[in-house]
Batch of 3 targets.
Target 1
Amino acid sequence: MIGGRRITSVDLVPVVVEPPAVLTGINKAIVEAIPYWPRQISIPELSARVHVEPKSLVRRLPACQAVALICQDGGDLCKLREDLSNV
């Protein structure tokens, strides 16, 4: 011990811990409007439901997928439950 701190020869490896993603505003509305599988919703129908242009909706999907398990089959979207009980 040197100066009250233990010194070891172990190399410390820094670990990056990212805070959990939190959805707000339109992204939260998008995730809530996407139905659970096997039901699906088309991108144009979802964009009309949340009042967002389809291109803007497509750009927002990666942020939504960071929180929810969103699957895209062609132009249709659906969500999976976190425990995958609806698969």
Target 2
Amino acid sequence: MKQKTTNIFKKILKPPETIVTLASLAISVLTQYPAITNKYIVNDDTNQHIWWMQQYLDNTLFKNDLLALYAKQLQPWGLQILYKTTSTIINPLILSKIIPIFLIIISSLFLFKLIKFITNSNTAGYIGFLLFATNINFIQAHSGGHARTFAYPLLILFLYFLIKKESKKSYILLLLQSLFYPITFLISAATSILNLFRIKQKRIKIIESPKKLLLLLLCLIFGLCILISHQKLTYNQKIGHLINKKEMIKNPAFYKHGRTEKLPTPSLIKEIDINLKSAIINKHNIEHHTKTLKSLKVQLPSSFINIFGSCIFLILLALLLTSKIKNKKHLPLELIYLFISSILLYEIASVVQPKILWPNRYVCYSLPILGIIIISSALTSQIQKNQKKSKIYLYATSIIIFISINLITILKINISNKPYKLIPDQFHKDLNIGLTDYSHNKDLFQFLRTLPKDAIIASHPTLSDAIPLFTQKRVFINHELSQPFYEKYWETIQKRTLALFKAYYSNNPDYIYDFCQKNNIDYLVIHEETLSKKYIHSRKIYFEPFNQQIESFIHNNYQPALMNIKQQNKVYEKNNIFVIHKNALQKK
């Protein structure tokens, strides 16, 4: 009986794909476990993209809410259809935590299959899988269940079928990309077009059959129609038109210390370097690796880790190119076309941004995949040659060290339980795997849920981020949705932001009450630390251009009226946070 069980177990685990699937399942569950088991742990972007979908459960929520209108307009149709059709059986918030598990498995499995197909080696596939599935950067990209979560799986699936010459499947995937994450559609569309052509006998020839050409043409047309129609049909006068580059350049919100640092645009060479080697090391996980090494009593500066990762990647790239040239072999042309498409779109986006979004989005998904393929292929080709074993062991050991540090970092992040601390512009605990912990304010959220459904709440914008998600209450303004991309919307956000902070730091309770009356605000949520002189003097009250403007109207004799609220007027108080009704400010 035992022998039969053992044989069955061996048969199940025999296919390498099964091992990869089980391993990626374990990693995905491990990294998403905090969110699955705790309602108040979510991906930070959930406060931008998912919160308003509670309207699918109750269409009376967030009525006439500008923030909900804006958030809905941002979402591609595929995402809206997915969440709306499933909302009858599962809460959108819960679904957003489950989706990453399946997408991590899909990305990992098909990346393994892609590398295995290219190299004809399971070893290369395993190396690529481990580099991908244990990297914090890639885990973060899959968290949240929003549009960007679909970028890697859809791009990897497209590449796999394209390189396998199953072009029908790859062309149909173009439609899915246009529905869920249009940036991958543009990259894949350009790659598909370039891949039509081959040079044979000094002539350029089209390699696809007329039927497949027609299918590609139809998929491209439908995909573009989906993108254009979404932009046209979702237009709302309250949101306005997308800004142009001239308006971006004039707006401090697009620079360092602003809401979203997009300017100046990074150089293409720098972006290529960062993204190609991100399979080994990237700017997002250097800090975490440094902390992990410190906890293991290994003191290494982050600059050393960065340089070390760069050197390993360049050596492996050189080895791969040398090996291919000697053996008169080539990388699949589809990969070269993917690289060219990404670079071209980066340059186009740099000129016309933000019309087709941000330039870095066109290299931050495609180039890391290329980087993983290069590393795994190069290392495997050297192992197969079985020459200069000492060098092979050096490269292999280096990769194993990076993978081990990745795994330790992921484990430490998941088991860490540091106390929450408020720091400027951060009212949450970041778990650094694409998840944010708001548990410290769960009592506040539970109280706010008991307020009338149509209540409007005002607070410090960053503290307001998670209130709509966990309480289903409207907020006057929050940080996540204070985005400067659309002209009319941004005008309103600017007015609201300045009005809020003028009232928040006002010495006059009558002024605050008038502010509430004018904007139909019912309750104020106050974090006492944001009123402290220490916080004000930190000069990090909010992002630019608001920070300097806020400082200009805070008087030298700073004595905010909200610090003098009587205890009996506080309807909630805990963890230096209290809630008052606007009538507490009214003269009696």
Target 3
Amino acid sequence: MSKRVHAKIKEKHPDMLPYTSKDGFTLLLANTIATVAYHKKPKSDNFIACIDESYILYALKQERHHTSCSTIFKLKASTLKKYYNDDTFKMLQKSYEDEMRRYMN
């Protein structure tokens, strides 16, 4: 994660700062339940993690020689529903699907 992205997360989503550390990001990766494409940036993929009944979106951006995290934020039910209805949405852990549907309604 670049210093600029870290500063932006610190300013706009300070509750997500714990996930920017190595251990916190590992927690996000371990709890990833879905993926959805980001149409505005073809080299960026969004992932959704479920931690403590919260849905957190993080984006991984592919650069020339590395991959970096470009954003992390907590999803509102309406935003999660928008992603869920996207053609590119894919559940990676089907066991969370019923819980996710309850959250969106």
